[in-house]
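Aim 2 progress update. The chain analyzed this quarter is reproduced below.
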Amino acid sequence: MSQFKRCLAEFIGTFWLVFGGCGSAVLAAAFTAENANIAENIRYPLGIGLVGVSLAFGLCVLTMAYAMGPISGGHFNPAVSIGLWAAKRFPASELLLYIGSQVFGAIAAAGILYLIASGKPGFILSGSNPLATNGFGPDHSPGGYSLFACFITELVLSFIFLIIILGATDSRASQGFAPIAIGLVLTLIHLISIPVTNTSVNPARSLGPAVFVGGWAIDQLWLFWTAPILGAFLAGIFYYQLLSASKPQR
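Predicted structure tokens:
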């Protein structure tokens, strides 16, 4: 498979992850029926909520892992690419190309999502997490969690995410089922951590919305690159050293 096709697959897969996952949070999470009230001042809730957003992220990864995985391996996440490299499953020579494709896919998705969301009268980039941004501290963690709590959450969940990816794609694992395991674990990760950081575990997913929100979202972006990449890197080394069936050379 040509390098261009692999990078294009990573662009498309990351685009779908950010557009579908963040789009579900921005457009559908808290949707209400305009003309149906369940109390005097309470509109009927039709939104998908935290569980729905969690499923949306998991389904995006699951569907694209099946569609684009045969072409590029289905990383869709700089931390995943780095974790696979640390586990000696991915060549260093392709890291920058993959990460660049993922970043551009995420930015394109966030831009189109912003165009759609701004089509509703009164929409502005305001609130604690506009455009499904990630954040920490009392103002930008959905649950008001501290920087330390958010860093540990992203680090640990990224570590576990990579361990499951590496295990599900191991030569000893049942073939053809890896996307299901990966999609389900990403759903579970969101169920755990949306209240803490609005869930990243993916630097490209964090960067896309932050580009359009700017300000504080850019200032806090360092955590959502550092913690997921560190967690994935440690998972790659851990799996390679202690759990691999063999130690292939790059």
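The longest helix spans residues 3-28. The chain has a mean pLDDT of 93. These observations will guide the mutagenesis experiments scheduled for the next reporting period.
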